[in-house]
Structure formats: structure tokens, C-alpha cells
Amino acid sequence: METEMFMKHAQIEPAFVSAILKAAEDAARRIPPAFPLDATVAVNPFLGQTGEDLATASARLQRVAGVRATRTGADFSAAVEAGELTDADLEAAFAASTSPLKPKDVSALRAVLEAAQTPAPAALPTVAELAAEATGTDWPSIIEKSFGTWAAGHFDRGQALWSPAPGAETFASWRAWATQDLTPEIAGLTGFCAHVAGAPDTPERAIIRAAEALGLDPASSETAFHRLYMDLGGWSQHARWLLWQAELAGGTDQTLLSLLAIRLIWEEALFAHVPDLAENWAEVVAKHRAPVEPSETDIALTILQDAAERAHQRRLAAVLYGESKSGTRAALQAAFCIDVRSEVFRRALESVDPTIETIGFAGFFGLPLAHKAQGSDVVEAHLPVLLNPGIETTSHADAMHERDIRIAARTTRAWGRFRQAAVSSFAFVEAAGPFYAGKLLKDAFGVKSRTEMIAPVPQVVGGLDATAKAETAATVLGAMSLTKGHAEIVLLLGHGGQVTNNPHESAYHCGACGGYTGEVSARLLAVLLNDPETRAGLAERGLPLPDDTLFVAGLHDTTTDEIAIFDDGLPSDRAEDIRRMKSWLTQAGKIARTERAATLPGANPQTVSDRARNWAEIRPEWGLAGCAAFIAAPRAATRGKNLGGRSFLHSYDWKLDEDFRTLELILTAPVVVASWISLQYYGSSVMPSVFGGGNKLIHNVVGGIGVIEGNAGRLRPGLPWQAVHDGECLRHEPLRLSVMIEAPRQAITGVLERHPEVRDLFDNGWLHLFTLQGGRIDARYRSGFRWNEEKCGALAA
Q: According to a count of CB atoms within 10 Å of the terminal CB, is the N or C end of the chain lower?
């Protein structure tokens, strides 16, 4: 009603208002969310563009961010010279392209490779950039610093000692700040405080007024607004996360809209303040009005990107060629997360003894947990970010122990605040500095100075009755394709990374557990599956577990390749079996560390663990760098095959999948999450200035949300440069994920028909899709539910 009154008073057409606000909404949906540091998970930077292909997305990003979404011709040329990209790869990618703008033949495609340099793109300028050119004052930098200073306080999650207008709505908070901030006035933008004070009092009204003042119409406003969102960098992505969280809970959030209104108020003020911008700005608006369409260069580079991916598929097909056979009942089955880092350890473990089998499954083990850790009432969502929690758990100890832990935590927080406070920080350094010398030396040399405390066994709040236990267990075992052939010991391994002095620590943990380590899910499931009530219920459902099958929980440290086993009431009469299992795990850890050490700068097998505890180590491990394929098949298809730590491995037997419900779950959850990981690494490698986290060496943590480079400015989303680059060259090969599933084509097609948002990922080329048969590549998916038979031998030729 208030907006309608505003429109009537300002004599604005309702259709114009509706179209402008829709453009603002559409632009907001183009922004990917950035999760806070305490629970960082990988996010597809193209999340809002999966409805279009890579070439179109690249054209859009050139307009709004000044980056191209593919590597340069020089990069692909180097791959050709190195023999990684063959004539056959180029010809196959060229033949697969249906674009009318593609080069006339493969020879013309080669001309792109031979070009000295792919022209660098430039984003359409903002009013602030035009004003900077006209006046010589760096207005974009002033806006970035002024906005960043306010945003760091407003969005703070407990790091700051003071926050402006705590609890206030975003737009109102900024207006209160901006009417007192004299930075713009000192820089020459006279009357800016008064301009803010006189602005409309809601984001919607402010956007509408600014659009009119700037001459933006519905056709030009969507990419113009997207341009301003990208100008705010990670702050926009944090606001998108707030909207993501609100919508996951069934609500909504207006923070993104407020940020657009704030940025438009700056544009509006500069447009009015700086003379002679009208003509140049009108040309920019006209360019925004034009449809987003890829150029011939964009198409050619996209074909070369496809060729690089076909080259990897060709090499992978050669490794997969032929099937390994499984043997008799296993002494040990070890279930790892599908994370690509597990592939190295799984292969090492299976090489130790032929009676060992490994299983791949999402690290939250199908348990959608909302968990309260020991000594904390913060609810941690230990599940993929696509899902809502369904089970509440806690690791709280007995009352006396819990009280002591909480008191210790409060003391630590109080001490930390004291030494950061303005009145005590310098005195603290003078007085306490000598006492910290020993700690600094230990940290510098990676000496472990504390003993890890094992939290109590996670408990379901309120408990589960016998029926719920059996139903939960049956669902999980079915999804794991683990309904028969159980080993003497089934080891359930969560995973996490051990790093020191690293703001992005949670990025090394389990993405399927929401950026937390996976031991909570593993321990809870092991206890559940060992429970007599659960087993009795499973037997009634036709899923009996052998009496001698024991479920054991553990944690795989991906940085050190060490396995911790949780003794959650393990029977004493199985001590010898458990000792043997630990011996196997120790041997496998040595093998895995030897393989991984060769990829880490300056490392050897003996120093891999030390790197994890070294506070100065910027590359403790490579995380998921190199990820390139997702394979859902029985382990026999990949057992004994060296996949180089580049494949997500999900155990799946379609013959045990009633109504293909597990197949549907795999395609709509693990595959989507893996695509987020793959494309985040892609974006951080190919477009680091926009979707990368910047240089670790100059990072400062802001508000517990993210990092900035230096002491002020825009929030940096994505992965740090050191996570994908070794100082000389990229360690992550930017490829779109190749998804390979051993299942009937018609079953996969049925899932895609029911889930158009997943179908978009394949139809628009964000993922490749193959079927396997007997462990060999059988067919390639083409858009529109079409399949091309593509035998392994042909790919490997």
C-alpha cells in the first residue's frame, strides 16, 4: 500500500514499477550465495545462470564483471603443445557444437589457438567509474571502502567489539551510517549526507527513484543491476546466503534488495553531482538494453573448453577399461565419503589386503542432523546445504563436565576480547609478549601443543523408538547399496581436515556435513546399527545383519591421512579384529601420504603431517583441487584403478535399487553438490578476480563471515589462490564435471524428466553425463533426452 501511494505521488506507472522490481529480483537470483567461514561449503558461482549455456554465461559475465568464463586461447594452445589436447579432441568438440556462430571448420578453430592473445573483456562502466574518469577522483575505491567499513560492522557475527545500529534492518542501518559518514563529502561529493537523508525510506522506493533518475528501463535494468551487485563482490554473495537460508526455512529476506538500493543511491548522487555524464551514461544504458548474446570468440573458446574435457574423458575411459572382480566375504568394509580425497586412501587401503573392500557414500551418511556440539548451544547443520535438518542431536556431557567446558570457553572468549580491545591491546603485547614466545615457536615449527578431547557419543534429542531406528537404518543401508554381503567389521568414516591458522579451515572439512567434520554422523550411525532394537527391526524388514558384523566409527583426517577410531562401547572380544584393522589403516596411511607428498610443494612423506600443524603453511593439502569426475557404480568398476584423486566415487548397484529411488537421490543431491564443488574450483581458477578468495598472505577475517585483502574493501568469496595454484602454475585443471553412472538410460532419463533444474545442468553443458555398463563407458547424454552410444574403446583411441 505504501509503495502504491509513493507511485501515485511520484506519478510512476505501476507497470514500470513492477518491471523494475522484477529486474532487481532477477539480478539478485544471478548472485551465488557465499557461506560464512565457520561452515564454508563450495558453491557453484554460475548458480543463477544454469538456465543458459557456458558461452552465454560468459557473455553475461563480461558485461557485468569484466571476466570471461573460459580459459584463454593461449591456455588451450599450451595444452595442445603439451600433447594433452589432440586433433581428435578438437574435432569431436567441434562436431558436437550446434552453435550457428561456431568457426566454419576445425582449421578456423585452430586460429583461435594460434592467436597471440585473447582480447581481455571489460565490464560496462558504472556511473561511479564514469565520474572517476571525468573528475580524477577514484569514486569506485571510495564506495568500496565506505561501504565495506559499514558492512563489516553490520553483518558481523561476533568478531567485532562494536557494530553500527545493531539489530536494525539493512537499509535503515546504512542510511543511519551514511548520513554521518563524511568520507564522500571530504572526497568532493558535496551534499551526499543530505542526499541519503532525503532518499526514500524503503529499498523498493529507492530503487524505483534511482532507476528513473538514471534512465533505466525494464530492458536495461536487469544487467545494470547485476553489474552493481557484482561491484559489491562478496557482500552481495553474503546477502544471497541470507536469502538462501531464509528460503530454506520457508521465509524470505530483503538484504539483497537493500544492497542494490544502497549502491543505486551512490550512482544517483554521482550522476547528479558530476556534469556531462549524461551522454556517456546513455550509451552504457543502451548496451545494457541489448540482449546478452555470445560472440564468435565466446563460442570458439567454449568449444575448446569442451575439447579439454573430452581429453580428460578419453584418459579416464582408458583407465576404466575392463572390470575388476570382487571376491569372497570381506573381513573389512570401510565406508568413506565420496570426496575425491578419499579415492587415494581407498585405493591404498584395498592394496594392503585382498579381504578389504571400500564403499563410497556422502559423508553425512544420510542422517540430516541439527547438532549441538559439546559445550555449545549453537545449532550446526551437519548435512548438505540443499536439505533441512530432520534429526536433532547433541554431544553435551554430564552436567559437571559441561559446566567446566562452558566456563573455559567463556574465559577464552573474554581473554580474546581483552587483548583485542583498544584500551588494552598495546599494553597486552608489552606485558604478555614474552610469555607467547614459546607458543609462537611451537606454532612456527608445527609442534602440537594440545591433546584433542573426544566428545561424548552424539545422542538423538528425545531418542528414537524401535520403529524409527529400524526405518532410519533401512533407508541408509539401502541408499548405500549395503543390504547384503556385510563384512566382519564395517568401518564408517567421516572426514575433516586438520589445519592451523587458516580462516578457510571449514572448506577442508566435509561438504556433505555442511562444512563440519563428519564424525558426528559416523558415530551416531555406528551406534544405531549396533543397537539390538535396530537389528531386530531390520530383520523384520527382510534386511538381517550378520551377528558378527560390527559397525565402527572413525574420522579420516584428509590433511595427514591418519584415521582416528572412536571406541564407543566396542566389545572387548573383538579387540584383535580392531587391532588388525588399525594396522591396515596405518599401512594405508603411509601409502597415501607417499602419493600425496609428491603433489605438495616442498613436502615428503615424513613432513605431510607436520604441514597440517604449521601455522605458516599456506598449502597444507590440495583439498578437492583436480576434481573432474563423479562415478556412481559398484566398486568393482573402479577397484584397483588409479584415478589420481580426481573422482568422486559413489557406491551404487542399480540392480538393488527398487523403483530407482536411490538413483534419483544420487542425481538430485550428491551429483548437484559435486557440481557445486567442481564449478567453484573452476570459477576460482578461471575467474579469480571475481569468484576467487584472493591471496592468503594478506587476508584479514571480517566479522566471522569471510576475508578481505588488506584492511578494508570488498569481501572475497570463493577459494584462495593458494588453494588452486602452486606459485608457478594452476594445480586445478578447470573442467566441468563428467558424471558417469552405471544404470539403465531410461531410468536416468526418467529422473531428469522429473527434475528440470537438474536436467538444465546437463542440457546446458554444465555437467557431462555418461552411462556405464560393466564398468565401461556405454553412452553419452545429449540435450533433449538423447543418448549417443560412445564405447570406451572409441573414447580411449
A: N
Q: CB neighbours of 575 closer than 8 A, spacing ≥ 6?
A: none
Closest of 735, 253, 742, 519 to residue 509, by C-alpha = 519
List the chain domain ranges. Answer: 1-318, 329-397+455-619, 402-444
Tell me the mean pLDDT in the region 516-530: 96
Contact 500, 613 (CB under 8 A): yes
Q: Are 621 and 497 in contact (CB under 8 A)?
A: yes
User: Is residue 547 helix, strand or coil?
Assistant: coil
DSSP assignment letter at 707 = E
CB 576 within 8 A of CB 526: no
Q: Please give the biggest Cα pair distance in the chain.
A: 86
- Give residue-wise pLDDT tens across range 26-79: 999 999 999 999 999 999 999 999 999 999 999 999 999 999 999 999 999 999
Query: How high does pLDDT run on average in the chain?
Result: 90
Q: Is residue 11 very low, low, confident or very high in pLDDT (cuts 50, 70, 90)? A: low
User: Which stretches within 633-744 are classed as H helix?
Assistant: 661-668, 670-686, 688-691
Q: How far apart are CA 587 and CA 332, in angstroms?
A: 15
First to last CA, the chain: 67
Query: Do the Cβ atoms of 85 and 700 come closer than 8 Å?
Result: no
Lowest mean pLDDT among 171-175, 720-724, 727-731, 792-796: 792-796
Report the C-alpha gap between 791 and 778 in whole angstroms: 5
Q: In Å, what is the CA distance from 467 to each residue of 164, 472, 474, 537?
A: 51, 9, 11, 7
Least-confidence region, from 197-206, 284-293, 389-398: 389-398
CA distance 67 to 44: 16
SS3 assignment, position 58: helix
pTM higher than the cut 0.90: yes
Neighbours of 651 (CB within 10 A): 24
Radius of gyration of the chain (CA): 28
Contact criterion met (CB below 8 Å) for 440 and 504 = no
Residues 6+ apart with CB under 8 A from 475: 366
Strand partners, 356: 332
* Interatomic CA distance for residues 352 and 346, integer angstroms: 10
Element (H, E) at 755: none
pLDDT in tens, 291-326: 999 999 999 999 999 999 999 999 999 998 755 555
In angstroms, the CA 681 to CA 735 distance is: 9
Concatenating the DSSP letter of every residue in 170-215 gives HHHHHHHHHTT--HHHHHT-TTHHHHHHTS-SSHHHHHHHHHHHHT
Count the Cβ atoms, other than its own, within 10 Å of residue 639.
Answer: 18
Q: Is the pLDDT of residue 10 over 60?
A: no
For residue 392, the cross-strand partners are 370
Distance CA 596, CA 621 (A): 9
Chain length of the chain: 797
270 neighbors 35 (Cβ within 8 angstroms): no
The answer to whether the beta carbons of residues 381 and 366 sit under 8 Å apart is: no
Q: How many CA atoms lie within 13 A of 26 on its CB side?
A: 15
With beta carbons less than 8 A apart as the criterion, state whether 708 and 714 touch: yes
Contact at 8 Å (CB) between 766 and 54?
yes
Cα separation, 761 vs 672, in Å, equals 9
Close Cβ partners of 114 (under 8 Å, ≥ 6 residues apart): 73, 77
Q: Which residues contact 324 (CB under 8 A, 6 or more apart)?
A: 636, 637, 638, 639, 640, 641, 775
* Bridge partners of residue 222, in order along the sequence: none
206 and 687 Cβ atoms separated by less than 8 Å: no
pLDDT in the model for residue 615: 85
How many helices (H) and strands (E) the chain has is answered by 32, 19
Give the β-pairing of 786-789 and 699-702. unpaired
Question: CA 453, CA 499: separation in Å to the nearest integer?
Answer: 17
